[in-house]
Amino acid sequence: MAYEFTKEDLEEIEKIKAKFPEVMPATLPVLWVAQNRFGHVNPDVQRLVAETLDLPEAHVHGVAEFYTQYYKEEKGKFVLDVCTCLSCQLCGGYDILEHLEDKLGIKKGETTDDGMFSLNEVECLGACGYAPMLQITNDTYVNHLTKEKADQLVDSLRKGEVPEYEQIDMPLRNAK
Amino acid sequence: MSTADWKNYEPVLIPNIKDLHKIDVYIKNGGYEGLKSVLTDKQKWENPKSVIEEVKAANIRGRGGAGFNAGLKWSFMPPADGGPRYLACNGDESEPGTFKDRKIFEYNPHAFIEGALIAAYAMEITTIYVYIRGEYKAYIRMMEKALEDAYEKGFIGKNILGSNYSVDFYVTGGAGAYICGEETSMLESLEGKRGYPRVKPPFPAQKGLWGRPTTINNIETLAHVTSVINRGADWFKSVGAENHPGPILYGISGHVNRPGVYELPSGVPVLDLIHDMAGGIRNGKKLKAVIPGGSSTPVVRADQLDGISMDSDSLRTVGTMLGTAGLVVMDEDTDMVDMLWRITHFYHHESCGQCTPCREGTGWLEKIMLKIKNGDGEIKDLDLLLDITTQMEGRTICALADAAAWPVRHTITRFRDEFEARCKKSVHAVA
């Protein structure tokens, strides 16, 4: 398919470019604009980004490959990034990953046949006190996971309901 | 306030004020008075240098992990030459066990923004970037909103608060790479490239963003600047441990009843932090070990922790360091072999691949640890691991290789019995 930015995307890209003294620093943010638009940044999308910014395609490709959050191929509608790094490992991150593998009938790194879910094992997401946890498609964090909570999450995502941002109060804090 | 009084400490960085993230609430509680003071009170702040002197005197030791005096770092900036100069605020926060800066974005973003503006004024900087890890989408949005509000109120932009000082402040995000928390690698990423660390010297103060003088500070460090300007360097120095003063955001995770982020003075005894603040070890288990300041800081056995407090001097006596004050607590059931394998997996995954000792070394550490974890290790593998760590440390552009080597060296040395037991073939059933 032919990839094209919309008028709104191009306006956003102009705003991004205005933040920096030259165009190259726009590479990461514009790859984000592209990924938010197309769901991934495969080589065709990388070419579009390079052309839009008038940068070498090899540069954009190198950047896209370096950072783990850019999807170089199509993913499911919801990408579940389960953290298994230090604190999550200590608190059951692998149990959650395994449980989701069973529940979704796929292994980590795979996508369900209906294209709804991709499942990944990821490195530290910086939510160590709320372990085990996962992130939905590079955005919402779901903390303090249990197997039941993971089940409920999958069921509500199937219905298209994405949980809202969850603020976790600092312990012993009683804000006046 | 001495370290012994930590139980009576009232938080200042994240005080108990509802909706403090809203700019009106922040202003109502004395917000942006510090910025106003440095810009307009010429009696108190004769020039930008006097602000640097105050911050230097406070001895705010960088809260990103390295613990260097923030004011001293600022003083390395060369004199202004009319060209652009930058402040890059490091909100990457990717070290396992560390999750504190997000609390500033969430609860008190304007304290950070104000601190960054004061820092920029002190160093005659005209553009500020805050770089937030790509996973923190919610916090990127929060910062965008907070900056927009501050622009609207005239705290950022042209001739702020009627002074002749103008500054721009932008938020930008990463896209998933631990290495971008390393300061020069963050600069590369900000410049739109792969996050490969730069060789130092030249240091960023000489040659930073786009070859221009740049200072890089952690988010919490900059938030502390606001308190120092409002309350004075003497107040800051009077809180907590002598050589590592001030409040600290402790992130406590792992096997405790009440994990989370706590604001307390530096130098709180480790065991008090675990038992009194974090509610003790969950399920009534015993404490086995802690990692005091993020995964790269050497692990400490429970029997070494008597009288040890969370400051660099005290932690040094047990061969470890404060790092980011991200305390990871492990109970008696923790398998140190599995734990160490996961750490080696992390560093192998996150090595940028630029330097051979790190790219290859982290790979071998993980591979050998996997072999041991699977029960196929031999005693000689432990010595091989220790040998590899010595070939990695100090031989690379940045400290990621050191950060990968230390946990291996110290976990094996301090829990050698467990590693040897896993390496003995007799642990397998006879076929």
TrEMBL record, chain A:
Matches recorded under PROSITE patterns: COMPLEX1_24K (PS01099)
Pfam families: 2Fe-2S_thioredx (PF01257)
Protein residues bound to [2Fe-2S] cluster: C83, C88, C124, C128
Signal peptide span: none
Keyword Iron included in the entry's annotation: yes
GO MF annotation list: 2 iron, 2 sulfur cluster binding; active transmembrane transporter activity; inorganic cation transmembrane transporter activity; metal ion binding; monoatomic cation transmembrane transporter activity; NADH dehydrogenase activity
Cofactor: [2Fe-2S] cluster
UniProt superkingdom: Bacteria
Any one cellular-component term (Gene Ontology): membrane protein complex
This protein's record includes keyword Iron-sulfur: yes
InterPro entries: NuoE-like, NuoE_dom, NuoE_N, Thioredoxin-like_sf
NCBIfam families tied to this protein: nuoE_fam
Family per similarity comment: Belongs to the complex I 24 kDa subunit family.
Entry protein name: NAD(P)H-dependent oxidoreductase subunit E
TrEMBL record, chain B:
Coiled-coil parts of chain: none
Signal peptide region: none
Keywords: 4Fe-4S, Flavoprotein, FMN, Iron, Iron-sulfur, Metal-binding, NAD, Oxidoreductase, Quinone, Translocase
UniProt entry tagged with the keyword Lipoprotein: no
Single GO biological process annotation from the record: cellular respiration
Pfam families, per database record: Complex1_51K, NADH_4Fe-4S, SLBB_2
Domain annotation NADH-ubiquinone oxidoreductase 51kDa subunit iron-sulphur binding: ranges: 337-382
GO molecular function annotations of the record: 4 iron, 4 sulfur cluster binding; FMN binding; metal ion binding; NAD binding; NADH dehydrogenase (ubiquinone) activity; NADH dehydrogenase activity; quinone binding
EC number(s) on file: 7.1.1.-
Catalytic activity: a quinone + NADH + 5 H(+)(in) = a quinol + NAD(+) + 4 H(+)(out)
Cofactor(s) this protein requires: [4Fe-4S] cluster; FMN
Function noted in UniProt: NDH-1 shuttles electrons from NADH, via FMN and iron-sulfur (Fe-S) centers, to quinones in the respiratory chain.
Family of the protein in this entry: Belongs to the complex I 51 kDa subunit family.
Protein name: NADH-quinone oxidoreductase subunit F
